[in-house]
Amino acid sequence: MIRLKHLVTLCLLLCVALPVFAAPAPRYDLFEEASGLLEQGSPLEAAALFRRILESSTDREDRARALLFLSVLYSHNLNLPDTAVACLEQIETTYPDTSVIIDARFALGAVTYRNGQFAKAVTHFDRFIELYPDHMRSSSARAWLREAEALSGEDKQIDVQDKAMAQLPDKVRVLIRHRADKVTLGKAGEPMAVLRDGSPLFEGVGPVTVTPGEEGLVVNGVVAGNLTLTIGPGAKRPRVDGHAYRGVVTLWPDEDGISVVNTLPVEEYLYGVLPKEMSHLWPEEALKAQAIASRSYTYHTLLNRKDHPRFDLEASTAFQVYGGADAETPETTAPVDTTNGRYLAYQGLPIIACFHANSGGMTESADAVWGAALPYLQGVKDSFSSLAPDACWTGEIDADSMVKRLWEKGYRPGGIISLETSEPSPSGRNGRVVISTSRGRLELTGNEFRLAMGPEVIKSARFSVTRKKRHFIFEGCGYGHGVGMSQWGARKMAASGFTYDTILHHYYKNVSLVTIDKEGVR
Fold first, then answer.
1. pLDDT at 176
2. Percent of the chain with pLDDT over 70
3. DSSP 8-state assignment for residue 325
4. Among 158, 179, 330, 382, which residue's CB has the most CB atoms within a 10 Å radius?
């Protein structure tokens, strides 16, 4: 088995490697935006931006740097070490003259080691030491080399599943408020306690008002300072702004107000997710499929964000919608309990189980939307979604509003001259949207354009467009990015007699259903 300290070191080494080289900034400021998306827990969206740099930048340093970022993302965030190695090898063959090459050669040894390819790791670390005997990382390379040599002569396989799942936190930290200017805790007449770093600050009955102040948080007019406050478990159910939550609620001052995190067991978190993501009136097998998809997504996020100092997920569509205890219903709690601990795995690890409202007749691959080729997120025919009400739609926006929305998203177009779509994917979604403006040409992916215009205008990247004077009219099918499980499709499949496992295997390919319980993975 690989020593845990070296697995932790791998992530640190790869992440620390990124800012070492002195590559010039790209013509567009996407590295910072992509890094921010990774920090927020959105690896697929980050991959899309790194891909855009790779495809569009004229600077060799930028392209090599994007490949290095992608290698870290594939290895650490998406659990696809072979794809990470391919990115690093591309740097070797195409960009050996860039400042990134030293980091790439070291990372080749680290990634192959992590993947259990010890003989290859020996080769890569040997070469690194030979090429850079006096480099600051040579001592680390020698330590990794000794480990790899000790393991390469034996028939050892990394038990990826057990190793990873053993590190899975048993609780999830959900960001339920961010930059709030006021937070009300508790309920009138209900006993509660507010703790400051574990010591009682307030004990009595609610409500309690918390506001940001110059010296930190202010609780009922009393300055608490820049400290973490906790409500519960003294309260029957911690309440935040009138809404009840299971577990414990923690507050701290952030840069523009107050942040609030709800910490609770994963299964109890799912009690508050399922009714916000799927109607409690839908068939039970569809609800079971949604419970497993949401649990898989949660497990994957927890494994990749367990070292984040504050939270794991947000209670929004950026992650999964979470409504706390108030959202729970018996109809949605039962499927969570029935599938307790069950998740979708690829090569032993939880998948990013993306889902969306309606595929419009065919789902999309993750590669087509974000440039991240995930073997389990492929496009599949989905006639069940075509049967859903409002599967197709019409949207309209005028040219001035289009310009305004593009500016709000950070683009800088002038007046709209023309708009064209191109590069349709096998599902019929637009790969590219090209907008000619008075300030030049702007090119976006179909998904980027959809998000820029807003889902109330363009529900899916599968659309055609016509122009009538100053107005653009979009006609399309589907709702959402189209990747993974279609919720309406799952509903129709369940109503037709399909079980939850059949539904899941229809939308997610090359996966297995695994259960984790108190005894471990089985």
1. 97
2. 90
3. G
4. 382
Write out pLDDT tens, residues 473-483: 999 999 999 99
Return the amino acid letter for 219.
V
When computed from its CA atoms, the radius of gyration of the chain, rounded to whole angstroms, is 25
Strands 355-356 and 485-486 come out as parallel
Half-sphere exposure of residue 38: CA atoms within 13 angstroms, side-chain side = 20
Q: How far is CA 452 from CA 162, 369, 449, 473, in A?
A: 41, 14, 5, 16
Q: How many Cα atoms sit within 13 Å of 43 on the Cβ side?
A: 26
307-329 pLDDT, tens per residue? 788 899 999 988 999 999 999 99
Q: CA 90, 370, 293 angle in degrees (round to 5)? A: 120
Question: How do residues 185-232 score in pLDDT, each as one tens digit?
Answer: 988 888 888 888 778 888 888 899 999 988 889 998 888 876 677 776
Within 8 A by CB and 6+ apart from 346, the residues are 79, 374, 375, 376, 510, 511, 512
Residue 355: strand pairing partners = 485
In angstroms, rounded to a whole number, what is the distance separating the alpha carbons of residues 286 and 291? 9
* Peptide bond connecting 133 to the previous residue in cis, omega within 30 degrees of 0: no
Q: Chain centroid to CA 134: how far?
A: 39
**CA dihedral of residues 134, 139, 142, 147 (deg, nearest 10):** -170
What domains can you pick out in the chain, each with its CATH number?
29-158 (1.25.40.10), 392-477 (no CATH)
353 Cβ neighbours under 8 A, 6+ residues apart: 292, 293, 294, 296, 297, 300, 344, 484, 485, 508
Enclosing H/E stretch for 33: helix 31-40
CA 302 to chain centre: 10
- For residue 483, what are the CA distances in angstroms to 362, 443, 511? 9, 22, 15
E strand spans, 353-470:
355-356, 392-398, 416-424, 430-437, 440-445, 463-468
Tokens of 4: 């845990």
